[in-house]
Amino acid sequence: MTKKTIAPNERTKAQWAAYLKADQHDKTGKSNPSLKYYLSKEYRASIKATNKVATGWRTCPMPRSRPTWRPGWPMAPRIPTPPPVATDAAMSGNSWRAGLRADLQAVFVEQWSPYLGMTLLVTLLTALMISGQFWGIFGGLKLWGDWFNQLIGLGKVLGIKSELESPLMHRMSLMNLALILGAFAAACLAGQFALHRAPKLEYVWGALGGSLMGIGAALAGGCTTGGFFTPIVHSSPAGWAMGLGLIVGAVIGLKLLLWTLEHFQWGTQAPATGGDAFWLALRPWIGLFALAAALFWTASWAHAEDARLVTRSILIAVGFGFGFVMQRARLCFARGFREPFMTAEGEMTKAILWGLALAMPIAALIFEKKLLDPFVAIPPTFWFGSLTGGLLFGIGMIFAGGCASGALWRMGEGHLKLWVAGFFFAWSGSTFSAIARRWDLLTAEQNIDTMLDETRVGAQVHLPLVLDGWGWALLLSFALLALWYLFVRYNESTEKFTVL
After folding, report:
1. Running DSSP on this structure, what letter comes out for residue 442?
2. Is residue 227 within 8 Å of residue 219, measured between CB atoms?
3. Which string of DSSP letters, residue by residue, matches 176-220?
């Protein structure tokens, strides 16, 4: 009986990097027969005494054509390719169908550019802010954790209030649910939804990473969305402080992950994959049903008599749009902080910078028109809470395999490890927040001089107030974006700051 082979896309980027770096072979190919030789069963057998990473692997089939990946990268998940389109002559009068099919393929199957994805995400964010609301994720996850703590009897012990808001009425919780639904619809339409099972050890790392993310988000007043992206858009240095913590945490997390790859052998065997052909063929139709259901849900609430349902209908539409766009463009804040230090690839980081550059002046105009109060999304955690929370969150997202929003859309895509990470994120965030309240660590009090909230880990800070106007505030923010871009661009060319 032949052994089942494992496709390269089932290897983590850290595993590839550790494997190739441990051999220290000439990656330029000038003195090597080929990269295929270094991934062969024969070569791995010859170096198993010195490279423990290689001993636990089975044969990885190589593509017939030249690989499109560089050393240190995993193979990208292959999207099912439709049957080849016939020529115009063969199509006779049906060439328009081929064009229509190609357009649908480009929209619903092929991966979008992350720059397009960030542009659409900022467009949705603008609509949300004009409606007087803001984007956050951690508050909704914490509510889920509060419900679970009440269910298992810990709510009273932790001091969590017994009367909790419904997950369908809580603004962030509702948007999180809609985000998962949007990602599910996009994944089904693309034929990419499946129950993605991970090796056993990955579930342990998912639980550990999710727990650290929950604690970090509680300290920072939000996750990579509510503690980093949104505060920067709202012109608060709390977002920049958390960003610095995320960078340091990502580097530490990569170092720790590399150490685990060298010292842990249990639970690294990937499970068998596959699926029923009938179910796989139904996925596009299920995706269409999910899309129709979201539209009906939004329309029914928008025309409801209850004013609360009307105001929340925009959250369903925007949340669904967030999930759909992020899945199509593979947007992930964790990747933006991780990849420059792992493979030197900076495309996602530059896409995030592009999104911030678009959103900041738009938000400034919205605040000037008084359509939204900027302080509603500025956490009172600058600087200590933001920095330390970002550091813990950064370590956690490396082990979990995604940030908060990234975890949610991958949950919609069927990744079971991210469901584990999301559960522990919610539970630890709820539990630590309750403990911190008992210590008065995160209890906000208003400073009578500034009229802004302060806690033991920081305070609300708004750059236009500190710098006496939006001009200097935006100038400073764009200068920081430019410095970040130059660092990423330099590292892409030199790879001097990779840690693997």
Report:
1. S
2. no
3. HHHHHHHHHHHHHHTT----B---HHHHHHHHHHHHHHHHHHHHH
Which residue is listed with tokens 């977002």? 239
* pLDDT of 248 higher than 60: yes
Say whether 321 sits in a helix, a strand or coil: helix
pLDDT in tens, 373-402: 999 999 999 999 999 999 999 999 999 999
- The token pair that represents 89 in the structure block: 């002559």
Single out the residue of 120, 209, 140, 233 nearest to residue 180, CA to CA.
140
Inter-CA distances, 197 with 10, 40, 213, 280, 326, Å: 10, 25, 22, 16, 21
pLDDT one-digit tens code per residue, 7-56:
444 445 566 666 555 555 544 444 444 555 555 666 666 666 666 555 55
**Looking at the whole model, is its pTM more than 0.90?**
no
- What gap in Å lies between CA 98 and CA 134, rounded to an integer? 41
- In order, the DSSP letters of 17-83 are HHHHHHHT--TTSSSSS-HHHHTSHHHHHHTTTT-HHHHT----PPPSS--S--TT-PPPPPPPPPP
Residues 6+ apart with CB under 8 A from 473: 235, 364, 463, 464, 466, 467
Predicted local confidence at residue 448, as pLDDT: 85
Helix (H) or strand (E) holding 270: none
Contact 372, 227 (CB under 8 A): no
d(CA 191, CA 94): 25
Query: In this structure, how many other beta carbons lie within 10 angstroms of the beta carbon of residue 211?
Result: 23
Contacts of 183 (CB under 8 A, 6+ apart): 323, 324, 326, 327, 408, 409, 410, 411, 412, 413
Helix (H, G, I), strand (E, B) or coil at 228: helix
Complete edge-to-edge strand list for the sheet that includes strand 458-459: 445-446, 453-455, 458-459
- Residue that is written with structure tokens 């639970």 in the block: 267
pLDDT class of 291 with cuts at 50, 70, 90: very high
